[in-house]
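ok so for the tutorial part 2 we go from a plain amino acid sequence to predicted structure tokens. step 1 is just haveing the sequence, like this:
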Amino acid sequence: MDGIDLDWEFPVNGAMGAIKCRPEDKQNFTLLLQLLREKLGKNKEISFCASAATWFKDIIELEKVHPLVDSINLMAYDFCGPWTKITAHHTNLYLNKEDPINEGSLSSDLAVKRLREAGVPANKTVLGMASYGREFYQVEPGKDGNGLFQSYNGTIWRAGSIPFKCLKKYYINKNGFNRYWDDAAKAPFLYDGATFITYDDEESVHEKSKYVKREGLAGVMYWEYVSDIDGDLLKVIAKSLTK
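step 2 — the prediction. this is what the tokens look like for a chain of 243 residues:
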């Protein structure tokens, strides 16, 4: 094996109450990574998954753990979902200033900057992308007629999650759905007059890949491979990163 990727969601804040946690886990996370590095040595890779939320920097000791790892996988997705009150982008590169739900804090770019401000080198930051969409049901059109930043009455399909392979086959500019592009956020979304879907597509992952190169980041990852089983997104990412 090449190494270990640690996905602890999350020390101190265990999946927002869903998993047992305790305050001392902030230090325990550091101790665990120290032990892994000691046992694996310097030639094995160690990484961990990081939330894009503002509170993440407060629940681990970033300044102590980033020297212990080779990379940090930034989970820059799920910015909205069944737990939020209105529709929004769930994996936008930049912040749309009209977004009332994310309070000026949730975008891939802002999450990268928060890691950098905490001392994490750019070349240790791996930007996460999404190969699935978040779906909202019974959404009002709103003033722009596209369902963005509007209230809704429910989510469907596995708590509102749809694989990209299904989006491409059944939803994108099909079956009454129109594709829209938010140029401020560099994010696509779909709307059919009642159902709103936020997701990553070929255009948005291309924009994110250009960002990764421009900012000197370590690379990209996405969740999850099975949702892009035909490699439609992966091919664009690979081409964008290598040309």
